[in-house]
Amino acid sequence: MKALMFGWEFPPHILGGLGTASFGLTRGMSMQSDMEIVFVIPKPWGDEDQSFLRLIGACNTPIVWKDVSWDYVKQRISNYMDPQLYFDLRSHIYADFSHYRTNDLGCIEFSGRYPENLLEEINNYSIVAGVIARTIPADIIHSHDWLTYPAGIHAKTATGKPLVIHVHATDFDRSRGKVNPQVYNIEKDGMDHADHIITVSNLTRNTVIEKYHQDPKKVTTVHNAVEPLSPEIEAIGSKKGTKDKVITFLGRITMQKGPEYFVEAAARVLKKADNVRFVMSGNGDMMNQMIRLAAQRNISDKFHFTGFMKGKQVYEVLKSSDVYVMPSVSEPFGISPLEAMQCGVPTIISKQSGCAEILNHTIKTDYWDIEAMADAMYSIITYPGMYEYLKEEGKKEVDAITWEEAGRKVRRIYNQVLYGV
User: Fold this and answer.
1) Contact status, residue 102 vs residue 131, Cβ threshold 8 Å
2) Which of 103, 196, 120, 113 is nearest to 152 (CA)?
3) Which string of b and e fits 50-86 if b means at least 16 CB within 10 Å?
4) Are 317 and 309 in contact (CB under 8 A)?
5) Environment class of residue 271 by beta-carbon count within 10 Å: exposed (0-12), middle (13-18) or buried (19+)?
6) Average pLDDT, the chain
7) Neighbours of 126 (CB within 10 A)
8) pLDDT tens digits, residue range 174-224?
9) Residue 4 · residue 140 · CB < 8 Å
10) Handedness of CA 361, 329, 402, 112 (dihedral sign)
11) Less Cβ around it within 10 Å: N or C end of the chain?
12) Cα Rg for the chain, rounded, in angstroms?
């Protein structure tokens, strides 16, 4: 089976969980011997792992033929696209795209990030998707998250192939209910045009059904998983420089992630224990606010703000931690607790997170219950028996949650959509 997928980011160049999930799911699906995946992103950087799929950059896909030498074309695109594919794309151009801003190869340029003109890039991406879909043979089209729903719709319209959309989050999660009407309309349009909708948790499934008015029969949950640790990551040892216990928050410092509840709980723990330090790893629009809040609570000397972490750095932080906390207000899934448990780090998560549906060997509190969160932190760093139990049983649990199984569930959805079985 051939799947044409549209995504927005892909490791090692990621800014959040979307890229991590896209990588894990596609690699898990690639373990099916007859599964072929072409994955499109706005802008590849050239160092992505393409051993299990074919990666195409929208920024390297011509929508307007310009008068340049063929040798020059081949030189410019050789790292990203087969020259024959470029020729095929050229022959499939069906409309005049000359009003779009294009480079000397007739390609629309993309930032590969989340720029201020994001809605413009989303629209441009959808235009390129129609060109790619006409050229890449596929049985099914699969769009990851709202940024790519217009691309999926365009690809479906251009080819008549069924569309599956993957809801990794909704704007109700990102905005604490203060939904951006433009984003909501893009999400709703994608869901309305989809032949089937995959959600990363039942929490998200309920949001899709209730807030976007989708038929429950059309929506299926496929929980995320976690990549096995590589030998390089396994070799990372703890780098604790002091005898203090370390409690870590790792993620975007935005209102969705509940960073203020972490700081408030930390202040309460420090009233009972002095041998503990708190780490807040990540960036976001609330970072300065959290620095000020730590100062207001007079705990700045016990608080460390590391900035954005990725790749190996994430695991170095986790392996140096005694406790990991994810106090998200609304978390569609949340892969980071699985990564922490995989490293043997006892974990506290909010009951308002999708991963709470499948994790048993972790402590769950309401995101707003600062006292309960602080009590959980204090208990783990104080009672060795509790620490060891959560460390050992948590690792066993997440090691059994695999992307290969998630991939098999997605394949069953494909079969249902294509063949009714």
Assistant:
1) no
2) 196
3) eeebebbbbbbbbbbeeeeeeeebeebbeebbeeebb
4) yes
5) exposed
6) 91
7) 20
8) 887 789 999 999 999 999 999 999 999 999 999 999 999 999 999 999 999
9) yes
10) negative
11) C
12) 23
Single-letter residue type at 47: D
Integer Cα distance of 346 and 387 in angstroms: 6
Task: Give the Cα separation of 221 and 399 in Å (integer).
Answer: 20
* Block residue for tokens 């599964």: 35
Cα angle: 34, vertex 414, 406; to 5 degrees:
80
For residue 15, count other CB atoms closer than 10 A to its CB: 14
99 CB neighbour count, 10 Å cutoff: 7
Residues 328-360 have pLDDT tens digits of: 999 999 999 999 999 999 999 999 999 999 999
Query: Would you say 148 and 187 are in contact if contact means Cβ atoms under 8 Å apart?
Result: no
How is the beta sheet containing 245-250 ordered, strand by strand? 303-307, 276-281, 245-250, 323-326, 347-350, 363-365
Return the pLDDT at 326: 98
DSSP characters for 320-339?
T-SEEEE--SSBS--SHHHH
Residue 69 contacts residue 94 (beta carbons within 8 Å) = no
83: tokens are 């020259």
- Predicted TM-score (pTM) of this structure: 0.89
Residue 26: count of CB within 10 angstroms of its CB = 25
Residue 341 Ramachandran class (φ > 0 left, ψ -120 to 50 alpha, else beta): alpha
Which has the closest alpha carbon to 315: 216, 405, 415, 235? Answer: 235
